[in-house]
Amino acid sequence: MALLQKNHTLSSEFIILGFGDLAELQIFFFGLFLIMHLVTLAGHTAIVLITLIDSCLQTPMYFFLRNLSTIEICYILVIVPNMLANFLSRSQRMPFLGCALQMHLFIALGGAECFLLAVMAYDRFVAICNPLRYTVIITRALCLQMLTLACISGFALSLTLTTVIFLLPFCQSHEINHFFCDIPAVLFLACSDTRANEIAVFLVCMLILLIPFLLILLSYAFIIAAILRIHSAEGRSKAFSTCAGHLLVSVLHYGCAIFIYIRPKSCYTPEQDKIVSLIYTNVTPMLYPMIYSLRNKEVKGALRRLLQSYNQMRQQPNAR
Questions:
Q1: In this model, does residue 173 exceed pLDDT 80?
Q2: Is the residue at 163 inside a domain?
Q3: Is 313 contained in some domain?
Q4: In terms of residue numbers, what domain contains 91?
Q5: In a domain, 1, yes or no
Q6: Mean pLDDT estimate for the chain
Q7: Whether the predicted pLDDT of 262 surpasses 80
Q8: What is the rounded distance in angstroms from the CA atom of residue 5 to the CA atom of residue 34?
């Protein structure tokens, strides 16, 4: 009987309800979030290209920023295209394995991003608190090792968590009241006791969210203390400007994620979760390139040089 139930679950589909209750506004939201999606992709792609091309940005800080933007591009491509398609239909069918794959990639990329933000905080900690030994400590080999560890950790924890959730029986409603296969929305549909699974979700979220966030806060406590010891006002301003963008991105990223994932199943509220997830998967990724570029003179300078060289290349054929 259990085998039949398992086979029924594996062969079934989930129905993504999305925003079917806002039918009259769906075309408007489709246009709005499509524009936001394109702006986000353009911003992160620009950061990737600028940090690859510009010789002045070949430092560990921009190596991590480039990879953060690469992860962010993959992360939004896992969620946003399906969300946009959902705006054009009242509901969207998704195969069981497709839902599991979406959740796995979403958690894996989100987890890798969380670990990478912690690595970037460590990079800034060494740069400001131990500047004379920075090049000795933060080597290219160490950067590659930390990036690899962040990605492997995210994907390993994601595989564990996705397996734990999708081994549950979904023998009643298969309607996910969300715009993607998110953890609380899928867990809410399980028709068995999920307390052990909720503990597993909590432990994984502790590893992915709380521990890196606490390490970031600890790093910035030391960074702020070091900045306050700098006698020059110009030096303090420069040191703070290199960290402010990263700290703001970290607070936005972890704040939304902790609100959604570190809580019991009984506190699940679908409509509230959808709104927070919209912000988490659409608004904050769009803000990241703006935060990093607007607060960073080196990125703005690199973008200016890239545009100037592009204009010169365009003018050369005309001159001939």
A1: no
A2: yes
A3: no
A4: 21-295
A5: no
A6: 83
A7: no
A8: 39
Residue 231 or residue 148, greater confidence = 148
Residue 104, domain CATH:
1.20.1070.10
Residue-level pLDDT at 239 = 67
Q: For 193-205, give one letter per residue: b (16+ CB within 10 A) or e.
A: ebeebbebbeebb
> What order do you get walking across the sheet with 175-176 strand by strand?
92-95, 13-16, 175-176
Indicate whether 305 belongs to any domain. Answer: no
Q: Determine the average pLDDT of the residues in 177-194.
A: 85
**CA 294/CA 283 separation, integer angstroms:** 17
What's this model's pTM, rounded to 2 decimal places?
Answer: 0.86
Count: domains in the chain: 1
